[in-house]
Every structure is written in structure tokens, then in C-alpha cells.
Amino acid sequence: MRYNPHDYQKYAIEFIKQHPVAAVFLDMGMGKSSITLTAVMELMYESFEVQKVLVIAPLRVARHTWGEEIEKWDHLHGLRYSVAVGSAAERRAALQKDADIYIINRENVQWLVESSGMPFDYDMVVIDELSSFKNWQSKRFRSLMKVRPKVKRIVGLTGTPSSNGLMDLFAEFKCLDMGERLGRFIGQYRVDYFTLDKMNGPVVYSYKLRPGAEQRIYDKISDITISMKGTDYLKMPELISTEHRVYMDDVETRRYEEMKRNLVLQLPEGEITAANAASLSGKLLQMANGAVYSDVGGVEDIHDRKLDALEDILEAANGKPVLVAYWYKHDLERITRRLDALKVEYVRISSPGSIEMWNRCEFSVGLIHPASAGHGLNLQSGGSTLVWFGLTWSLELYQQTVARLWRQGQTSGTVVVQHIITAGTMDERVLKALEEKNGTQAALIDAVKAEVGKHGSK
Fold first, then answer.
1. Which residue of 239, 247, 354, 417 lies most exposed, with the fewest beta carbons within 10 A?
2. pLDDT in the model for residue 458
3. For residues 213 and 169, is the Cβ–Cβ distance under 8 A?
4. Does residue 83 contact residue 116 with C-beta atoms inside 8 Å?
5. Close Cβ partners of 116 (under 8 Å, ≥ 6 residues apart)
6. Neighbour count for residue 353 (Cβ, 10 Å)
7. Sequence-ordered strand ranges (E) for 214-303
8. What is the pLDDT of residues 212-232, one digit of tens each?
9. Of 144, 147, 138, 173, whose CA–CA distance to 158 is shortest?
10. Across the chain, what does the average pLDDT equal?
11. In what order do the strands lie in the sheet with 346-348?
12. What is the rounded CA–CA span in Å between residue 76 and residue 35?
């Protein structure tokens, strides 16, 4: 296929070529990989500035997306690539091949640097989904920093650089510029730009920005960063977000409240920590979905209200493909049982074959888990309706999942995102946090505190 880049793509290509350190923040669906590969092609075969490139990406994206992009565009066919995923022996064999670009999944960065026995002689590194290096304490971050001084050029790509707040930017930019702009140490970064927010004794749960700090951070990184939104440069379909509220009856509500009360009473006295807040939040969200894991590993049913709502939505769709996002395994099991009973054909989107079947519109329902299918999947050919059966606190996963349909190439003029919400439950608090673009740990803790406080006031 012939590559006819948009003006913003041409700008981004030149930006990467002119900046040895580049942060490219483009919305999902704007062609980050094709932009980067075009820049690599020109740096390698026109200006001869680059000889060997390492691409670090999420596993599914590493295995499929980058190679598919090279095969897709005519001007990239000269690039030789090798995908280093699989067993250690398979990865080592792939790294020994004669290629221009070597593609590895982010989970194996530590292996590559510390255990592979292969020389780290890449003069350019591309980090696809830079946000996956936001944890400065992670093994992948520390391993990459060991070899970062050897790299002449580096590009960080993401559509969600700070889904959990600007604290994320410290590690991401240290990967790029080795601390030149935001500092070399997380402690100093916190002192310079943040103040303490929520604490329990010496334990700090969250920080808040100092006045004016947000703009100062942006000013620091502006010389190596470009950020563009798809809605500014592409003719994007209209995005409609709706709520389909369901209501438990008195018996179901009493069961929910009783289970919530028992869970609250099991919490340790004093301040709620992130660990037990996440646990309690997860239990409450499961109950809102209609079932919950018991202490012995079984599943206890609470209600079928969301399943009934999903059935109504599918009936209203009248055969039009619907993508359904679920979170818990028991959600998937209950949904598939209902679809089987309705004799509705569905596919669980978890493999290249299932993606192709969905995009060929072979099934009226696609089931997707945001954590395993959020990044790098093009599902817009298969439909334009997304239903959230169960919500996630992760703003990044939420946005990435929506962007599987709401992206460039979507032929429908409208993408509809429906959220099945159980009234009076944790669902409402998660949706509010997502709407406020607040996928933070602090929001989770506040929501659980509110639930506990509501219980305590009764």
C-alpha cells in the first residue's frame, strides 16, 4: 500500500529525524508506528545516521503490529526486521539474525540487557507505549537505564503519557534524556513539583502539584516533545457515551449491602491503605457486576441485572456487531452462558485469528478484556458499538479500549460507548473518576472511604 502521510504525520517524521531524543505523544489511531518506521527508514538509508534499531513494545504489539506495518506500506519493504519473542532460545535466535530492526516485548528487556549474552549495540531505541516505563523502580526501567548511555537516538511513543498523573513523567523522561529535564532522582522531582497530599503516619498515598508546577513541567520537556490529538487533525467519527443504568431489587440490594458490610468489618482499624482499598473496591465492583469470588474460590451470584441489560442492548442492536468489555473471569463465564442460551454467535478476542474474524464481521458479539487487548489492536472494521459490562479504574486501559473502535479508519460516522451501571454501587464512583480523567490511586482510596463512610453512617 502506498503511504500518503497526513501533514501532522510529516511533521512528526521530521521531528523524530531532527531530535535524537524525542517524545511523541499521539492519540490512538494516528499512526505512531508508521511515522516512526518512516523516520527510521530515512535515518538508516538516506542520511545513514542509524544502523541498528531496537523496538520495545507490549507483547501482542511486538509479535504482530510492527511487522505488519512494515509489510503493509510499500516504502518500508526494504526494512529487514526480526521479532524476538517466545522462549529464550527463540529470542536469542531472532537477535542473531541479520536485520535492521529487532522487536522485543517489554517484559524481556531485563533478559536482553542482563541475561541474553548478546551485545547491546543498538544505536536507536524505540519504546512503544512509553507509559509502561513509568515505574522508576521496575526491573525493565532499571535494566534499560544501564544501557541507555550507549544509545544515540531514542523515541518514546504513547497516547497516554500521564494517565495516573504527572508523577508518571519522571521515569518516562529519564528513559529518554537520562534526567536532563526533570532531574535524575524521584525525590528531587517530588520536592520541586509536588507537595504531600494523603498520608497515614509516614506512609504517603498521594501527592498534589504545587501551584504553577504543571506548566513548569511542560516547559521543561517541550523542546523534545510533540503532542497531538486525533480530533485536531483527523476526521474522527462522533463519539457518544451513554449510561445504561440497572437497579437491584430490595433483596439483591440487601445482599449487596450485607456483603459490603462484612467486607468493611474485615478491614483493619485505622486508615485505609492502597492494598486493602483495592481489594475492597474489587469485591464491590464484582458485586455490582452480579457475582463475587468467595473466600474458598467459588463464585457467589448476586444478581443478573447486567446480563439482562446486555441482552436488551443486543436485541436493540438487531444483529449489528457489539464489542463487550469485561473485567473478571466470572463475568466472562456468565456472559458466555447467557449468549449460548440466546444462541448468539460470539468470539473472544484473544488471538490474531479472533481479531481477523471480528474484523470480517463473522460474529455479532466480540468479548474483549482491556488488560490483554488494549494496545495495538485495530478492531474498527468489525463494529462501532462498545459496551462496558464491567469497569476498570485504569484510565489508560479504558481509553485504549475505546480507541479500538473510535479511531482513524472507522467507517461508521458514530461510535457509541455504553456503560452498564448498577445504581447505588461502586460502578458510579469508577465512572465518575474516568469521566474526570482521574484514573489515580487516590481516587480509588477516596471512593472506598466514601463507601465505608456511608456504611458507618447507617
1. 247
2. 43
3. no
4. no
5. 88, 91, 92, 95
6. 10
7. 225-228, 238-246, 291-293, 299-301
8. 998 899 899 999 998 877 667
9. 173
10. 87
11. 238-246, 414-422, 385-388, 322-325, 365-368, 346-348
12. 11
